[in-house]
Amino acid sequence: MKLTYPTLRRRPELDALRGLFLVWMTFAHMPTHFSDLVNQPFGFVSSAEGFVFLSAMLVSQVYLRDALEDVPGVIVKLWRRTLKIYGYHLLMLAFAFTIAAVFATETHRPAIYNLINFYLVHPKTAILGGVLLIYCPPLLDILPMYVLFLFLTPIALAVGVRYGWRWVLGGSAALWIAAQFGLRELVHAWVVRVTHLAIPLQETGAFNLFAWQAVWIAGLWLGAKSAQDEMPLKRVPGYVVAGCGAVCVFFLGVRHHWLGSVLTQESLGISLDKWQIGPMRVVNLAAVLIVCYSMRRYLVRLISIEPFLTLGKASLQVFCAHVFFVFVGLTLLYEDAPQLHGARAYGILSLTFAGLMLVAMREARVRREVKAAAAAAKSAAAQSETAVAESAS
After folding, report:
1. Mean pLDDT of 92-103
2. DSSP letters of 244-262?
3. Residue 340, SS3 per DSSP
4. CA-CA distances (angstroms) from residue 91 to 70, 80, 94, 113, 272?
């Protein structure tokens, strides 16, 4: 039976949601007192999970048809996209290893120095490890994860559409379980042995990729089902949604210490860990997803506004720009001060969001110009063919 797909059109609410996650991420990363307010305020859910999940969902929706009809073609398209993101990763590393490194060595300010101290001590190993996506300094570890996941996405899409998503989901679940029992440590030891790059585990990035791939795969699966108009979340009964709401309230209480000294983030430990995507965190994430989907009609109206729409349409460029501004914010910290306050905090935040909007608007202008040039070229080609046909007749 041939699969059919509804006509895909750009969905502004998804752009707005990406923009919202970027704003949330910027507040969380910038060293101001606002970072405390936006650090998992709705339970054990962060902007990182939302950004990774939504990115996978959008990739699946865009490339699903190609994965069914032209596997080599979708591999080329996705790997071309992967190469572009990898290029941005190299640019971010170049900035960290040059400008940021010079500032760190000249000023010895801990906020910057500690961020890239491995590079400052072992520059050759760090450079090679960074190029190979092994060494991932803080703030620069999301793009390598994105590159690896996107590189492997054609396999997941091809298996999903040809043999069924149960195989993809089953394999992802098995990897996630293995990640909870030390798979990352085993693979890290093997990579160090093979490459002879003595990069400590803590310098390979905060994210446990074998756990976080489950977030990406879940996004691919739901994106594929949505493209086929078979979204599983539509079939969730009302009583299950109500139960998920109760689960969200429970984790909200745990997060903000409303449930006493027994049920706290510290007592539940690794099961709520962000970097491991612990089992209780999975429950919280699933509950939030189901509740948000059930309330999508209202949430769309709430988030489909500026600046979220413009920022979301240029998410890659805006993400890289936000990392640059976070580095700038860190340079303003003196001695052991963990945060900026007063005029410095408000000033850097104002500068940051103004800069992010300029980056997003520039990217939108470039895309419009490229689209206009392509349309003009197509029109000129059509006119030329018409003129040739008329002269021949």
Report:
1. 96
2. HHHHHHHHHHHHTT-STTT
3. strand
4. 32, 17, 5, 19, 33
Length of the chain, please? 393
- Contact of 160 with 224, CB cutoff 8 Å: yes
How high is the mean pLDDT of the chain? 92
Distance CA 311, CA 318 (A): 7
Which residue bears the tokens 């990898």? 86
**In 214-242, which positions are buried (b, 16+ CB within 10 angstroms) versus exposed (e)?**
bbbbbbbbbbbbbbbeeeeeeebeeeebe
Q: What is the DSSP string of 148-194?
A: HHHHHHHHHHHHHHHH-HHHHHHHHHHHHHHHHTTHHHHHHHHHHHH
- Sort residue 78 into left (φ over 0), alpha (ψ -120 to 50) or beta: alpha
Three-state secondary structure call for residue 333: coil
Give residue for tokens 């960074």: 130
Q: Which residue has the higher pLDDT, 256 or 392?
A: 256
Quote the CA–CA distance of 273 and 211 in Å, as a whole number: 11
What are the structure tokens assigned to 334, written together?
Answer: 């003196």
**What's the pLDDT band for 233 if we cut at 50, 70, 90?**
very high
Q: How far separated are the first and last CA of the chain, in Å rounded?
A: 45
